[in-house]
Specification:
Helix content: 10-25%
Radius of gyration: 14 Å
Strand content: 15-25%
Shape: globular
Order of helices and strands: EEEEEH
Largest sheet: 3 strands, antiparallel
Number of helices: 1
Mean pLDDT: 78
Low-confidence stretches: none
């Protein structure tokens, strides 16, 4: 979940429900998957997003974390 805040108030979810990502256990027991996977464009600038695109598959949590860190500009 990605949260924002204004002052000392209660945090709120960024982008309405777009800041919420659900985790499910992988069927093979290898960890967690982010589902549905985030839409991360392969190139900078505008990109077309296709609703229900069959190419979007659940993403391993470690890959999701790497993408978030890369987009945020930190490698921690």
């Amino acid at each position: 979940m990605f949260l924002g805040a204004r002052g000392p108030g209660v945090p709120y979810v960024l982008g309405l429900s777009q800041g919420v990502f659900r985790l499910v256990a992988a069927r093979n027991g290898s960890g967690w998957l982010v589902t549905p996977p985030p839409v991360v464009p392969a190139v900078a600038g505008p990109a077309r997003v296709v609703r229900g695109d069959a190419a979007r598959q659940p993403m391993p949590l470690a890959d999701f974390e790497r993408q978030v860190r890369a987009l945020a500009g930190t490698d921690r």
